Fold this protein.
Amino acid sequence: MLTISRDLVDRIAAHARADHPDEACGVIAGPLGSDRPERFIPMENAERSPTFYRFDSHEQLRVWREMDDLDEEPVVIYHSHTATEAYPSRTDISYASEPNAHYVLVSTRDESDTEFRSYRILDGVVSEEEVRVVEAYG
C-alpha cells in the first residue's frame, strides 16, 4: 500500500495538468528504507511527448546523486497519461528499474477528474496497490 500526503497527491496532479497535453514525470524521494514519500521532485520530460516520457539523463543523474547524498531513495516514481487510463504501458513496465518504488500514474484524459493509481512493478509483473491519502504524516 502507498501512504501519501494530500499535498503530494495535489502536487503530482497539478504537475500533470500543467504539462498536459505532454506527459509529466517526476520522483518523490524519502528517507532510505522508510517507504515514506516526502520530497517532491518534478522532472523534465525529455521527450516532450503526449504518449511517452523519459527523464533527461543529466537531470536524472543529478537527482539520484542528490538522493544518495541525503540518504534518500525514490519512494514514488510518477508520470501521467494524457489520453488513456492510469495503467502502465509496456514501455512503462520495461523502464521500471526501482524494485522498491511505487509507480504512480495519473490520467489527465478527463478535464474534470484526475485518475490517480499506484503500482508495484517487479520483473515485468504489474500489481496495483491501494493508495491511502493522509492529510499529514503522524
